[in-house]
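[scheduler] slot 2 assigned
[scheduler] job type: sequence-to-structure, two independent chains
[scheduler] chain ordering preserved from manifest
[runner] begin chain α
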Amino acid sequence: MTIDLIERRVIACRKCPELATYIADVGRVKKRAFLDQTYWARPVPGFGDPLARVVLVGLAPGAHGSNRTGRMFTGDASGDWLFRALHRAGFASQALATDRNDGLVLRDAFITAAGRCAPPKNKPTPRQLANCFPFLVDELRALSNARVIVTLGKIADDTIHAYVKAHGSYRTARKPFSHGRENAVALPQHGDVTVLSSYHPSRQNTNTGVLTQPMLDDIFTRARELTA
């Protein structure tokens, strides 16, 4: 299954009627700063280089970020942090992501998420994540060049390790989630892959200093080393 086909299926998904209603309502009411904009208000597909060796997995779209722009990590503070780091590491053509047509290109990187619809309070339920899981499985199978999977936050990390348990194996015992933690795994379509964990670049983490820009830069410097 190709990435293009998978992403069309993501956009058409209506497995969680409560989320479809929620994101439509957000897109209708809007945020004051974006009253003049048309919200995407649909499930958000992954995007990037289909030959990527580095795959990033986030939590879920933000209500007024990706749910507005239609592109992962685009149009909110989390994306501002992420794309600055990706640009400095050479994975993104520019450091600022504002909308789907801003010219940004990912090089050797692909961004996706555990959930595809913006959830209330940024907290998807286990059932909602389970409904999205097959899309992630299909994406990872299609991204056969992947050698590093960067998990942004614990939910993304747990989701990827659920994939490893179901479809792959560990080279050593799994290490618990922590910023900069690495797990060596083997996946049928890829061979050896490193799961590289990072704190999520959410406002909660960046405003409190739990995650700093140098810490995030280190993640992508390491991802670059692992694909050298």
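[runner] end chain α
[runner] begin chain β
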Amino acid sequence: MPASADETSGAMITARLALEQNREVFAVPGSILSPVSRGANRLIQQGAKLVRRAADILEELNVRAIAGQLEFKEVLPDNDLEKQLLKYLGVEPVHIDEVCRASGLSTPAVSSTLSMMELKGMVKQLGGMNYALARQVKEYTAS
């Protein structure tokens, strides 16, 4: 919520309704002497989260922790085909044709497996059918 919203503005009405419905509302405080800060300051009084810096929002929504968990989550292949394709991928983009040549697998098999791996967050397509690992890969060993 901007610090300069008037108390009767549409943005303020929406924010108040969101608070009533227990939704997350954030507000940047303004000077207590400024009439244009009344709306945001009142929202804070009513339960909106006070925001002094962008990190306040990230912390409140736990966004940093989620991003960190995704970044450090190790990739474990679900099957032998995924395990085989991971051998040919790294941090540098590799074209799907090169993966097919190196693995000896058909284009449809490689394409469909890479698509599933992308949905799982294991690899990322960087355009032009070039793929790279999305995260660290843990060596898979069958027990």
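[runner] end chain β
[qc] chain β: Strands lie at 26-27, 49-50, 94-95, 123-125, 130-133.
[scheduler] slot 2 released
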